[in-house]
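Module 6 notes. Inverse folding takes a fixed backbone as the condition and produces residue identities as the prediction. Think of it as a translation problem where the source language is geometry and the target language is the twenty amino acids. Below is one complete input and output pair. Work through it position by position during the lab.
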C-alpha cells in the first residue's frame, strides 16, 4: 500500500512569490500513520463485507458503511445500471451508513451494487467530472 500526504506548499502569483507554509517535523508522520491505518481498515472491512449501495434517493445513494470508514468528502465509484462507472461524494455519514451525491452527471444505480472507495491520493480522485460532448 502506498500513501502520500502534503507536508508544505508554496503559492506563486504573477511575478512575485506569495506565501509559503512549513509543517513541524513530527506532524507528517502522525498524518501518514493515521492515513495508512484508515486506508488499511477500509481495505480489510470492505474485503470482509463489500461496500454496497443500500438504497437510492433521487440523485443520491445510501451506502452500507458510514463514518469513520467513509469520512465526509470521500469519493466512491459505483457501476450504474448501464455498466458505466459513476462517482459519488459522501455528504453525510452516521456510524451505520453514509449519504452520497453524484459528482458530475448522474446515472441510475441499482441498490445492492458494489461501490469502491477512491482514496485521496489515488489519481482517479482527480478524474474528469463530466463526459466530453461535441459542441455544435
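Target side of the pair, the amino acids:
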Amino acid at each position: 500500500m502506498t500513501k502520500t500526504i502534503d507536508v508544505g506548499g508554496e503559492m506563486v502569483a504573477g511575478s512575485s512569490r506569495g506565501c509559503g507554509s512549513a509543517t513541524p517535523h513530527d506532524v507528517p508522520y502522525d498524518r501518514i500513520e493515521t492515513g495508512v491505518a484508515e486506508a488499511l481498515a477500509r481495505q480489510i472491512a470492505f474485503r470482509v463485507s463489500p461496500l454496497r449501495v443500500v438504497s437510492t434517493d433521487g440523485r443520491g445513494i445510501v451506502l452500507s458503511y458510514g463514518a469513520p470508514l467513509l469520512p465526509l468528502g470521500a469519493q466512491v465509484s459505483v457501476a450504474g445500471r448501464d455498466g458505466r462507472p459513476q462517482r459519488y461524494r459522501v455528504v453525510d455519514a452516521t456510524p451505520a451508513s453514509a449519504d452520497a451525491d453524484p459528482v458530475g452527471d448522474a446515472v441510475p444505480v441499482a441498490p445492492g451494487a458494489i461501490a469502491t472507495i477512491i482514496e485521496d491520493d489515488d489519481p482517479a480522485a482527480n478524474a474528469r467530472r463530466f463526459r466530453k460532448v461535441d459542441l455544435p
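Reference fact for the lab report: The longest helix spans residues 27-48.
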